[in-house]
Write a structure and sequence with these properties.
Elements lengths: L1 E7 L7 H11 L4 E7 L6 H7 L2 E6 L4 H7 L2 E2 L3 H4 L4 E5 L2 E5 L2 H7 L10 E4 L3 H12 L4 E5 L5 H6 L3 E4 L10 E4 L14 H7 L5 E4 L7 H8 L3 E3 L2 H15 L6 H11 L3
Helix pairs in contact: 1-10, 1-11, 5-6, 5-10, 10-11
The structure holds NADPH dihydro-nicotinamide-adenine-dinucleotide phosphate.
Pathway: Metabolic intermediate biosynthesis; chorismate biosynthesis; chorismate from D-erythrose 4-phosphate and phosphoenolpyruvate: step 4/7
Catalytic activity: shikimate + NADP(+) = 3-dehydroshikimate + NADPH + H(+)
Function: Involved in the biosynthesis of the chorismate, which leads to the biosynthesis of aromatic amino acids. Catalyzes the reversible NADPH linked reduction of 3-dehydroshikimate (DHSA) to yield shikimate (SA).
Length: about 260
């Protein structure tokens, strides 16, 4: 039986085993997907091999470590500098990033944004900024502190700290901060969000499994809103394409994962 796992710290909350095992089970793939609580980042690749894995997902806070440790990194992961999917190819481990493309696919048929505001400047923000840039969609990244903005500004992105913020018009506003994840906070002061969120806007929170204060405010303002569930499924389905060696269609993988993760 082939073995797969997700690595992270913390990891108990991860829905990835639920999604991937559903696919393996329903499609008769002789494989099992577990979770692994990694504490020592430098041992990621060593643990991957020691556990006899054929593939893995990497979550917070090890995506940059995975990027460093893979034998080869392919696709947009090279630009983002982070890997969320590791796949064994012969004796080598290849790294991919499915977060960015997974997110972008969730917009298809819904919105072709003209002007995007990303709240937060962490790993997820970076992945999303890169995919918008690839599709030549203008993006502004707004973060409460300057530290994480600096490398993004150096790569040519428009960046703003909260101090520099001035309201503009955006048709897609994404909360990629962890505000609202385990507390009741907003990613921006409420009056600013009230000026940004209205009926022509899609408010997108990458956090899944709860209606965050950001989404509650968007709803109250009459904006369209969406949580991170579809993104979670979409990035997992793209990883699953790699894990199952492209034997099944993306839509089949999507449908099975949707069944595994009730609304
Ligand atoms: P990082 O730790 O890399 O970045 C966190 C960002 O949030 C930083 O920019 C930080 O600002 C900002 N931030 C944290 N708290 C607040 C706050 N109270 N107010 C304003 N800004 C805040 O995290 P990631 O980018 O890796 O992950 C972000 C979120 O995305 C997580 O909630 C994660 O669960 C979710 N996620 C969802 C996925 C999905 O499939 N649905 C996939 C990947 C991630 P500062 O720099 O000032 O500290």
């Amino acid at each position: 039986m082939r073995q797969y796992a997700v690595f992270g710290d913390p990891i108990a909350h991860s829905k990835s085993p639920l999604l991937h095992n559903r696919v393996f089970l329903e499609l008769g793939v002789p494989a099992f997907y577990g979770r692994y609580h990694l504490k020592e980042p430098s041992s990621l690749l060593e643990r991957f091999h020691a556990l006899g894995l054929e593939g893995a997902n990497i979550t917070v806070p090890f995506k940059e470590v995975a990027f460093e440790q893979c034998d080869e990194v392919r696709g947009i992961a090279q630009k983002i500098g982070s890997v969320n999917t590791m796949v064994k190819e012969g004796e080598r481990v290849i790294g991919y990033n499915t977060d960015a493309e997974g997110f972008f696919q969730t917009l298809e048929g819904k919105l072709r944004p003209q002007n995007v505001l990303i709240l937060g400047a962490g790993g997820t923000a970076k992945a999303l900024a890169m995919i918008f840039d690839l599709h030549q969609i203008p993006v502004t990244i707004l973060n409460r502190t300057p530290g994480r903005l600096k490398p993004l500004a150096e790569q040519g992105f428009k960046t703003l700290t909260h101090e520099e913020f001035a309201p503009d018009s955006y048709d897609l506003i994404i909360n990629s901060t962890s505000a609202g994840l385990s507390d009741d906070s907003l990613p921006l002061p409420a009056p600013w969000l009230e000026s940004l969120l209205h009926s022509g806007v899609l408010a997108y929170d990458v956090i899944y499994g709860k209606t965050t204060p950001f989404l509650r405010l968007a709803k109250a303002q009459g904006a369209r809103f969406q949580d991170g569930r579809e993104m979670l499924i979409s990035q997992a389905a793209l990883s699953s394409l790699h894990f199952t060696q492209h034997h099944f269609s993306l839509s089949t993988l999507h449908s099975l994962m949707r069944l595994a993760l009730p609304q």
